[in-house]
Amino acid sequence: MDERLKKRLIGAAVLASLAVIFVPMLVDKRSAREPEVLRLPELPPAESPRPAMFEPPLLQSEVPLPEPRPVQVPLAEPGEAEEPPADVDRPATATAPRPKPTPQPQQAISAWTVRVGSFSSRENAERLVEKLRAAGIDTMAPQPVDIQGRRLYRVQVGPEAERERAEALLPEIKELTRLDGQVRSYP
Question: What is the end-to-end Cα distance of the chain in Å, rounded?
């Protein structure tokens, strides 16, 4: 066979195989543009009525004001003339102003962690975390931090609610890792 004829037959076979693959994709445009919508059956109407407390007329009604309390009169000291009060059951109209309560400063919730170390290799930090967790010490995942342009992975144990509990972990951590940990506030 002639070399040119062989090349033409191979080219024709390649074009035919490409046509078999790509022509169905081009012809079937519906599947690419229009996804099939799944129709769900409608839910039956709820059989139980709504609770009465959610009915609008009940929510819009006025609430009666509470009745005033009677004024309590302190007992007289011995030696003073005891005079019955004029209207004991009548509410006091003029009362001494109550001192405003001083707002208490809100204390932020704080916790304590033991910073075991910072590593330039994430793998080394993760190995230390696994070692501490295997020993039963609650350890956070390594946290990436940037210090002086370098990426480090910080390993911390805790958090603990009390500083004393965090400090009590230091000897155990040193025995396991041979690293001196530092107790730090968290977060």
Answer: 82
**Distance of alpha carbon 132 from alpha carbon 139, whole angstroms:** 7
3-state secondary structure of 169: coil
Check: pTM over 0.70? Answer yes or no.
no
Please give the Cα distance from 154 to 152 (Å, whole number).
Answer: 6
Structure tokens at 49: 């009525």
What 8-state DSSP symbol labels residue 78?
T
For 48-89, the pLDDT digits (tens) are: 555 555 555 555 556 677 777 776 666 655 555 555 555 555
Short-list 26, 30, 28, CA closest to 18: 26
Distance CA 58, CA 78 (A): 55
In what side-by-side order are the strands of the sheet with 143-147? 143-147, 150-160, 111-119, 182-186
Query: What's CA 186's distance to the chain center, in Å?
Result: 17
Which of 179, 177, 153, 157 lies closest to 168, judged by CA? 157
H or E element that contains 112: strand 111-119
